[in-house]
Specification:
The chain is an alpha+beta fold. Helices cover 43% and strands 12% of the residues.
């Protein structure tokens, strides 16, 4: 524990060597007039708080030297120009889909990325000092990880309290003894910084696990460099590309291969930072994967692709360490890969950052870093932390208890996300006397669980608000990466802004808005860019990188759920319309009951053994209402639309902006369960028609805009399988039995298949069995027929990389070919013939073969291209209905 801080007057900590901030607000205004800034409407309300460092203005009210060129650039813009630039930035945010949790649970509201266009500007001499401190800090933290997961000399010698390691839930014992290649545990590091009133930057927290934000910082830079392109060039702003290139070169060197396979491991679409993961993966040319995309065989990590298993050399990890391996770490994890810890011990894969690196994110360790730095490097810590007291030390605990009103109290081991809105700290001055007494008691009895940190008044900088520039507190997240020459700092960062003028750094860390950070250069700027330009020379190709099996799986089920929703809406619309035609008295009740039974049967995994819906209007209406409104109804409309949204979110980065917007239409997202006991059929029909139009628009975008890659083929195969199953089941329910319901049933079949006009144009007659069978079952030219689906399936499967190098056809090819051959060899007269038992036996057998064969084909596709397993349990074919996505 640092005794100089421990014995200091806590009230003076934030005022060490302060700037002379003595000018009152009116004096700021006077000084601005001397520079003709107050005459510009942008600056009229810019008055920093006394006693707080302002990034733009000096204490005498004059702009700092490195801001003057930027101020002049803004002043030179004509009226309304700046507003247009910011509107352009907002439009780019929307068009690029930038959002902090746009890919999260589709049932929750999206949270757009809030971007402010005025950059944080840092001069080169100041950045050089920050850079040196951050590089030293990264080396120190890497050395600490090497000791904690190695010999543990620092714990044995008492330089680190054992409770901060052994008592830390982020210390992963199964990872002890892992020796990463090159001795690099910390490949990527971030630090949250705030500038105090004295003008010095301090570290508020260290991010050593899987630091988030560099992707957002990159997107902010790209947007602002286009909106303020002339200023960006004139100011000699350091580019970011060389930093990412150096990081990439180091990962390549550690892999030991000239052209390694590098993947970025993300928690998936449920992650609030998934956009940044997808963006960064595309920028660096890495494959974006989830835990289910990887498998470990013989202590070697492989990527599951539709072409087969591909070895993985480097994993850029963006999931928590304790979730990385459900076999040896957290058994409840659904985002990790079993066996990853063993692969790390074997040294067969580079994992960046090393598993278990979150052990250094505990706040209590910050109090010991100065002594650890002197012990390990012989140097003083160049970049200090905000004054911190770990209450596991008796003297420090006493200081914290006696100064609760001046401190923020944190949980020692608590962690929070980039823009977390759930507070992980307690501001002592905001507590009631009763709560303050209770907190003192907890610190006294369980002090190891608490950390006290000074309430550092963060600096302020200009923010665009309501057509003016206002001062708002700022915290800066900076990023450091291991390179071939040691550690390098990204010349920029992610600046975060508080929503109000509250300047305490602990509050700013939860700010919503972000800014680009401009680090100015004294000399020429490195023009390296990893983004393609109009003059870039690339090897033209018409195929993308290997399609991960999980992505193919989700696209396959997106096709199935989309088709399922369309078929269901058509069928329900046909059924509900029978209520309106008879003025509330349903017509063709027996045929409608058979249609409703079709949905009930599909909800029971296609089993024909489900109980038939009674052919009375009350029973039919109850069943229709359940299918329309009950969220727990298997194969009901709410459950199907929920599955559709969930699956689409998982492949959001594979869909066009228009396709994603279409699926997010209100008509699909609004709750389908009514708030009233009775709903008029006309209202239901209007909503069904709107939903069907939206889904049809998505299908059209999918058909017209997607390249015919393997991804499109799996999406299309899902649709074809679902449509064929739906049509076959309707035929079985409506035409196998020779009953009075046959004639109205044929009409309903044509309506549900959207083929009534096609039938009328061919036959100009009422529906008859033979032509309906030909049109909807056997006609390969009709895109609604079963034969068309099987023919399309065969074409798609033939284009896939075959699972076996041996002669002959793959199992899924044989199953689909057998079904298509049966259809092509069928005789319509034999299919229509009624046996003595009153059934059409040939038709029944043909439909049974299709209904049994298509699930088998789906199973073979899943086994060969999604799971890469040797065998699949027979009951797994419908597993994706619940959990596959």
């Amino acid at each position: 524990m640092r005794r100089d801080i421990l014995n200091a007057d806590i009230g003076d900590l934030s005022q060490a060597r302060p700037e002379e901030v003595t000018v009152v607000s009116s004096q700021y205004h006077d000084q601005l007039e001397l520079l003709d800034l107050s005459a510009h409407r942008l600056w009229r309300g810019y008055r920093p708080k006394p006693g707080v460092y302002d990034e733009l203005l000096q204490p005498d009210g004059q702009p700092r030297a490195h801001w003057r060129a930027f101020i002049a650039g803004l002043d030179a813009m004509p009226d309304g120009e700046l507003e247009q630039r910011w509107a352009m930035a907002e439009r780019m945010v929307q068009e690029n889909g930038v959002s902090y949790d746009v890919f999260a649970d589709p049932d929750s509201a999206d949270r757009p990325w809030a971007f402010d266009g005025v950059p944080l500007i840092l001069p080169p001499e100041e950045w050089a000092q920050l850079e040196a401190g951050l590089v030293q800090r990264a080396h120190l933290l890497n050395a600490l990880l090497a000791d904690v997961y190695g010999p543990q000399h620092l714990v044995r010698e008492g330089l680190i309290p054992p409770a901060l390691v052994m008592g830390n839930p982020q210390f992963l014992r199964p990872c002890h003894g892992i020796q990463p290649r090159g001795g690099v545990f910390l490949h990527f590091y971030a630090a949250d910084l705030a500038r105090g009133p004295d003008g010095r930057w301090r570290v508020l927290s260290d991010r050593t696990e899987a630091p988030t934000g560099s992707g957002f910082a990159l997107e902010n830079r790209i947007i602002l460099s286009q909106c303020l392109s002339e200023g960006f060039a004139e100011h000699k702003v350091n580019r970011l590309a060389s930093f990412f290139q150096q990081m990439h070169d180091k990962l390549v060197a550690l892999s030991g291969r000239a052209n390694p396979r590098i993947v970025l491991l993300s928690p998936g679409s449920r992650s609030e930072a998934f956009f940044a993961h997808a963006y960064k993966a595309r920028y660096l040319g890495y494959t974006l994967v989830e835990g289910a995309d990887l498998t470990v065989r013989s202590d070697r990590v492989f990527l599951k692709t539709v072409e087969g298993l591909q070895p993985v050399d480097v994993i850029m990890r963006r999931i928590d360490s304790d979730a990385a391996d459900p076999l040896q770490l957290s058994s409840g994890s659904d985002v990790g890969t079993a066996g990853l810890v063993r692969a790390a011990h074997a040294g067969s894969v580079v994992i960046a950052n090393a598993l278990g690196s979150a052990v250094l994110e505990n706040q209590g360790l910050m109090a010991f870093l100065p002594d650890l730095c002197r012990h390990l490097t012989g140097e003083s810590l160049l970049l200090e932390s905000a004054a911190t007291w770990w209450c596991g030390d008796g003297e420090a605990a006493a200081v914290v208890r006696d100064n609760l009103d001046r401190l923020a109290i944190r949980s020692t081991f608590a962690r929070h996300t980039l823009l977390s809105h759930s507070p992980n700290h307690i501001v002592g001055s905001m507590l009631t006397p009763e709560h303050r007494a209770a907190l003192r008691s907890r610190i006294e009895h369980r002090g190891y669980n608490y950390v006290g940190q000074e309430l550092l008044p963060a600096s302020t900088m200009p923010v665009w608000e309501d057509g003016h520039l206002r001062p708002r507190p700022v915290v800066l997240r900076v990023f450091v990466a291991a390179t071939e020459d040691g550690y390098a700092v990204m010349p920029g960062g992610l600046a975060r802004i508080a929503d109000s003028d509250e300047s305490r750094a602990v509050s700013v860390q939860r700010g919503d808005r972000t800014k680009d950070t401009w680090v100015l250069s004294e000399g020429p700027v490195n023009a390296l860019s990893l983004l393609p330009t109009p003059l870039s020379v690339v090897n033209v190709r018409r195929t993308s990188q290997g399609l991960p099996s999980r992505t193919a799986d989700n696209l396959f089920w997106l096709g199935r759920y989309t088709e399922r929703a369309e078929d269901m809406i058509r069928l329900l619309r046909t059924s509900v319309s029978r209520l309106t035609e008879g003025d509330g008295v349903m017509v063709d009740t027996e045929a409608v009951a058979s249609l409703v039974h079709t949905l009930a049967a599909r909800g029971a995994n296609g089993s024909a053994e489900t109980e038939t819906v009674p052919a009375d209007q009350a029973s039919i209406e109850r069943q229709i209402r359940s299918l329309l409104f009950d969220p727990d109804q298997a194969y009901g409309l709410p459950e199907t639309l929920s599955s559709l949204h969930r699956t689409a979110a998982a492949v959001r980065h594979r869909l066009s902006v228009d396709a994603w917007r279409t699926l997010n239409e209100d008509i699909l997202e609004r709750p389908w369960h009514p708030r009233v006991a009775h709903v008029r059929p006309a209202v239901v029909l209007a909503q069904l028609n709107g939903a069907l139009a939206t889904l049809s628009a998505f299908s059209g975008l999918e058909m017209e805009n997607m390249t015919r890659s393997h991804g499109w083929r799996f999406l299309d195969m899902g649709r074809r399988i679902e449509r064929a199953l739906h049509m076959a089941q309707m035929f079985k329910d409506l035409t196998v039995e020779d009953s009075e319901a046959l004639r109205p049933g044929l009409t309903l079949l044509l309506e549900a298949a959207d083929s009534f006009m096609t039938y009328r144009s061919r036959y100009l007659s009422t529906p008859l069995l033979e032509p309906v069978l030909d049109l909807l079952l056997l006609d390969e030219a009709n895109p609604r027929s079963v034969a068309f689906q099987l023919a399309a399936l065969q074409d798609n499967v033939d284009e896939l990389p075959q699972s076996s190098a041996g002669p002959g056809r793959a199992p899924e090819q044989r199953v689909i070919m057998a079904g298509l051959t049966d259809l092509r060899l069928s005789d319509i007269a034999e299919l229509c013939r009624v046996s003595a038992s009153g059934r059409r036996a040939e038709l029944d057998a043909l439909l049974d073969a299709i209904l049994a064969g298509l699930p088998k084909a789906s199973e073979h596709i899943a086994r060969n291209y999604f799971s890469h397993a040797e065998a699949v349990h027979t009951g797994a074919v419908h597993r994706a209905d619940q959990d596959e996505t």
